[in-house]
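Figure S4 source data
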Amino acid sequence: MPQFDVYRTPGRARSATPYLLVIQRERYDETSYRVAVPLVLRSEAKEADRHLNPGFMIEGREVVMDTLQIVTIRVNVLGNAIDNLAQHGTQIVRAIDELIAYGK
């Protein structure tokens, strides 16, 4: 399962959070879970910080990473990837670094 694959959000949260972005690297593919970040519609995002919440276009919809809502999800509920954001890998990793970096 390639890092930065995008999946449709399973379940009822799909209206405001239509996608999940898998951030876990492929080295851990043998696990039955993936670490993912919700991709929220920009119109539903309360306040987007340009470092913590980078934006992307998926299926013609403007979304932002809701980095503070990192989740784990079982692989068997993800379905098929609909996109891959590897070309934005630097932005994605920078957002995660912004969240966990040491210091103020």
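Figure S5 source data
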Amino acid sequence: MRVYQFRHIRWRRKCSAVLLRRAYAAGYHRLVSTQPLRDLLEQAFPDATELDVIDRTGGGDHFQVVVTAPSLGGLSLVEQHRRVYEALATPLADGTIHELRIKTKGTP
């Protein structure tokens, strides 16, 4: 069992290294991949006091979004998240975003 686990770990490291090299060779940069999402959120929440898009894994498809805006005040957490999903509907539909974590806060 230990030999199998060791080989599995080596295989995972090798795959991660290959994917990372391919991403850099393709010109991937974290700021470039998050900017289109940031633009969509800035259009949807022009009053945002805090707006952040984080590429969680470096692969360009797992993101965390943080939005703090007065327009979210008074809305339930479900409604706040629904507004973020509406803003990012296109990248969610075309597969650009595979995983999305959302943190929202309404300010009075």
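Residues 16 and 105 are 35 Å apart (CA to CA). The helical segments are 2-25, 30-44, 77-87, 89-93.
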